[in-house]
Every structure is written in structure tokens, then in C-alpha cells.
Amino acid sequence: MGEERCAHGLVVGQCGECKPPSRGLPGQVYVTDGGLVFHRSPDCRDLLRGQSRARRQGRDTHDARRVALTDALAQGRAACVPCFPAHYARVGASPGSRQQARQVPSGTPFSAPPGTAPAPAPAPSAAARTPGRLPLPEPKGHQRDVVYLRAEGHCVVLGTAGSGKSTMALHRAHFLAHAPGIGGPTLLVTFNRALANHLRSVVGGGPQGVRITTYHQFACHYLRESTGTAVNVCSVKPRLVGTALGHVRERRRTTGGVLSRPVDFFTDELRWMAGHGITDRETYVSARTRRLGRGRPLAAEDREAVFDVHEEYLRLRAPRWQYDWDDLAGAVRRRLAEDDRPRPCRHIVVDEGQDFTPEMIRSLAAAVPDDGSLTFFADYAQQIYGSRMSWRSLGLHVPEGPVRFEENYRNSEPIAALAHAASRMPHFRDEVEMVEPRRPGPASAGSGPRPMVLRADDEAGQLRLAARAALAQYGARKRVAVLMPTREHEDRLVPLLSCGGTVTVRRLDAKLEGWTDGPLLCYGTYSAAKGLEFDSVILPLCDAALLPRPGMVAAHGVEEARARQARELYVALTRARTELLLLHSGRLTDLLPDETSGLLHEMAAA
């Protein structure tokens, strides 16, 4: 590796600790154990008065010790006002409202409409005057460096499953919201609403100064606030695309060629167009934008027919809806280009960025000011929504390259070994930049049983065995999830899990609110579990006839379907910390290493 690295192990230009300290703040400061602020000198009068008060009250006192400014910030400490008057005069804030000049009302990360005065920031409570530590594991080793990457421009962090990306994203957002001189309103954006809800519950609703949201929540809020009008989003796109396809077939008097493809193919193609900002026929037909994620490129005449379907879909949609969930990002980017008001936030952190379309990332990059930052966390092995585009095509300027994490801290050694082998299979190989997980070693979450494979008589038997295993794990006070490729079998599974209402079962979906620290029993799809983790994961319906899904094969062809389904399955199996059970009734899917690999343990049905 010929890359020049700084004293902290990061590529030169990436490290926030190597940058000159903010004006008015030194690189080294003084702290005491249990103290809430940092000081310029161990002789600070406030510090000495606090120690005297503690001694009078019979409490232990500690001498101030010298630490790096970034260490003090990572511990949630604020600057001492008497020690750093120049800093607070410059940012126009007290420790409890450091971003007063940029702060907006809690719960709304957007500026006030033109002509209205912004609401005054509420006075902070005593408990909120200093941002506290996050109730999360402390970042380990190289993870910690990511928290302090530079706070201007674009940063890219690529990591394998289980490398702690979501934890790093939360710590990074907390740092960017509160760091003196560079902090400001910060958005942490995810694709999956269940993950956003989970992150909010983990940190108690969200760290002070940080708003956790999904991309589509951000987009709808911004468009509604910036235009002053309601945002009507079409939620029946596949149905309208099917109607549009029928009209084009009638008009062209043919059902052959590309028009013989199923509706899912056209829905996926229109999503790809919207995600890449393609709105005109010439750009699409001439194939100016490179298309990954399809075995054979479409011929020009086929593209003409697809664009006819696109135009007919827009015509059918226009009377009732302005947007659909796919073209919201393009609308946000265009609106931001015309919006000369202050940007709604100073920093944006993107978690699970591999599932964001290029237009989503471009719009988020446009939503931060010149002195702000966009930090992009991703794992392209988990890219399950079909775009399969590298971060390099997203318009991000990262001359020093991405930071990479290959260590898996979540999964036990046997599960990590299966994930490692799965990521090396042929259907994972394409031109998208992936971080291959290291062969499991000391960094993995300890030893455990090999992933188990159990054969049932039929699909109904698989669901019964899945429910029995899940309830046994739940009874052992564990967090367990039953994950399936689609929601098709949920109605048959839920009665088996709920035991007549005696067990509380949670569905992984957009409505999921709140998480408990104790045992938990969940069910849902592979994609709904993105970013989450459980002690035990049970995967029924792992038959070769079901994975890849027949509908996916019909829409995209065998090779592309295998590539997409393999990534979904990889997401599912890497949700498990210590125990993984695969169920099938026919031949086991070949999207995973087979039983002869030694990575799986075949069980006899009880």
C-alpha cells in the first residue's frame, strides 16, 4: 500500500485530528474524571472551585490530566466558558447552545419559510447543557478514527457486515453536531425506516443536535417546507406501470420483444432511470449512463419501447400524484439548485448508503453548505435494491479514497466463516467496489456452533420448525428473528409464533417502534432486517426452487436474479450473532456453500 498515512493511521487528508485546532481551542486540553467540561489549564479557577466543593462534600477528587481535544469531545465534554471565551464569542453560543446561529427548532431540521422569523431556540435544560455520552459501545481501534474524519467535504467509509458501521455513524453524527467550531445541525439518514426507528430507540430518541430520519422522510419534509404545498406521492407504481405497459402494447400492436417482459422488469427499469436522474428519451436510448445490474444491455429499439412505457406511466400518474418514491430525489436535487436560503443542516451522515440511488446521494450532497460535510457509510456486498453502483459514480469528491473496514465484530467465527465464503462465490463478482470480509479471527464475536441446516417435509413443515426454534430461543431470553425472502408466508407463520396471543411478536416493517433490552421475537423479510442484529436468526424457505425467487428470474434473468438474491441472503445470515438455522424441504439453494464445505452442520429432524 503506497498511501501516505498520518500518525493516527489514516490516509493523509482524511484525519480530523491532524487538522489545525479550531480557532480558540488548543490541540491538548485538561479534564478530570467525572467532569463535564474540558479546560485550557489545570489552574482554571472553575476547575479548582469544583475540586474544593467536592472535598467539602466528602467526595473523591482527581487531578486534571492532559488529553487530546478530540478525546475530550468524544467523551461528550463541552469547553469551559472562562477558559475559552474567544471560542464562544466567535460561535455566539453558550455550552448548551453552541449552534445558536445555525440551530433550528427541535424535530425540524429545516429553515423557516421566506419572510418568517425563525422560532427562538428553547433554553436548554440543565441536563441538556452538555451533550452526554451515547449509550453505545465505544468505537474500537480504527473505528475510532472514523469519528474524527475531516468535517468539510465528502468522506466515504466502506465496511463489511458486522464491522460496526451503524455504531460509527451514530458516533460520527454526535461528534459533528457538537464539535466546537465545526459542529452544527446534523442529519443521520438511513434507507430503511425500521433501522431508523431502531437507532432512535437505541439512543433514546436521538442525540441532542442530531436528527435520525429516512431519506424519503427527509425528501418529503424538504419539498413540503420549501414549496409550501402538499407532497403527493404515488404508492401504486407497479399497478400504473402495468396499465401503461398494456397501453403501449395496444398502441404498438405487439407483445413481442422487450414488451413481452413482466411488469416487474419495467418497474425496475423505471426505478433505475429515476435513480440516475434520466428524464429525457435521448439520454436513455443512447445509453449514455452506464447500466450495471443486467446481464445483456437492451438494444436501442427496446429502449424506445421502454421509454414509451415510462412516458405513458407519467401521463397516467399526473392527474393525482406529483411524484413517486423513486423520483423524489430528483425533485429534491432540482429544488435545492434553485433554493438560495441557508442549507437545512451543516452535516449529513448516511448509513447503509449502498441502497441509496445516485440521485439520492447527489441531493444530500447539495443539502449541506460549503463548510459542511457528507459522510457515506456503505457495504456493497449488502446492496439489495438493484442499483449496484459504486460510490465513485455518485458525484462524491474523495481524492484520498475511502476508509475500509474488513473486520467483523458481530458474528461468531462459524457464521463469519460462512459469510466470508458466501462473499467469494461467483455471483458476488461484479465491478462494484466491495470490501471482502477478512477470514474470521480474533476480531469476530467469539466461537459458537456452526450454522445448522434442517430439512422438513414441506414448506408448512419448515414454518412449524422455524416457529418452534424461535420460541425456544425466545424462552432462553434471547433476541431472535425469523427472516424470509418475501412476505408471502407471514400470515401462516404469525399464528405459530404468537402461541394464541401469549407471546408478543414484532413485525420488522416501517411501523416498528421501540425496542426492548430483553428478549425479542421478530419476523420479516431479509431487506427489513438491514442494519439490525439478533442473537439467533432462523431462515426458512432456503430451497433452490425458491432462491433465487422465480419472479425475480422472470424479470431479470437467471444470472442477475442470482446476484441480487445472493446479496439479500448475505444480509439475512449476517444478522445473526451466535446462532443461525437454515430450513429447506427440497434441494438447498446453491447461493450458499453446500454441505460438503464443512461450514454447515446438517441436523436430523426431531
Automatic annotation (TrEMBL):
Its EC number is 5.6.2.4. ATP binds at residues 159-166. It comes from the Bacteria. Residues 124-133 have a biased composition (Low complexity). It catalyses: ATP + H2O = ADP + phosphate + H(+); Couples ATP hydrolysis with the unwinding of duplex DNA by translocating in the 3'-5' direction. It is an enzyme of class 5 (isomerase). Residues 138-441 form the UvrD-like helicase ATP-binding domain. This is DNA 3'-5' helicase. The lineage of its organism: Bacteria, Bacillati, Actinomycetota, Actinomycetes, Kitasatosporales.
